[in-house]
Amino acid sequence: MTKPEYALALDFGGTKLATAVVSVPDGRLFGYQKARTPADAGAQASLELILNTAGKSLKESGIPQEKITRGGISFGGPVNPDGKHVIRSMHIKGWENYPLAEVAADRFGFPFRMGNDGNVAALGEWFYGSQGKPHYFMYIQISTGIGGGFILNGEILQGQGMAGEVGHQKVQYVGEAAFPCACGSKGCIEAVASGWALARDAKALIESPEACSVFREQVSKMGEISAKPLIEAARRGDSSASEIVDYAFRCFALSLSNAIVLFDLEEIVIGGGVAVNSWDLLEPILTHSIPEFLPTEMRGKTKIRMSHLKGTETLLGAAKLSELAG
Ligand SMILES: [Zn+2]
To answer: Which domain holds residue 60?
Structure first.
């Protein structure tokens, strides 16, 4: 049996943060903690909160402190390829060039390695969800935004810190009609199919005379105008909602096809709340559309599946990443 090695894992997102002690060989979590990121309170307050939350994980894990010898951090924004410095946060000001890995190392007394959240989640899914087998692997998640990363020959594709920004590949021509994206560009897949993009479309639909009654019913039943009632209405055959959801998911299929063409991927895993909760609608569209978007020779060669790690892929990836700490 493999000797257990333990790492302290930190998942530092713009809206949520989570920490745990992870048994690296098998991905068991101990002392799991989560909290809302106090984004409005600024960089210092969110830093204090995640370090204190991680301290709580250490204490409550029940793992003797001397067995926890390294740490990994997933950060919600671009990270320097050295794995030590944040380039900037996508959500909170004041993180520019911050040496977060060193600050965490000073606090806990062991080395840390940090990565961008999409890349770290990809590492977690590749190692724990796909047993580290595929050589050409992509993970993508649809949640509030769209993010992900590539694991090629066992390594995170990093570029200069920004590689694998799968949410910002173009699926619409960048003209007047393309949807504006949070990244400052237009026509990105995130601006079409993410949770925030579908919420925007749901709001526009409810104000339009074209909204069908099924959609209106779901909005009043759920008490929110978001991706949720839009997807549920589409599931129930509402034509106004289906038109939006089908378009978004076909665009998503297009973005996956582009990735397949670029990297000849063996496997794509799809996670994130929006994708997982609408898998019954998303999967048939991917199955139908992706071959249509691919060159004949590339059809049917990429396995596509849903993530089964229930959102822990990021924490798990941070634990796996800690192997590079030092
Ligand atoms: Zn974008």
So the answer is: 6-125+312-324
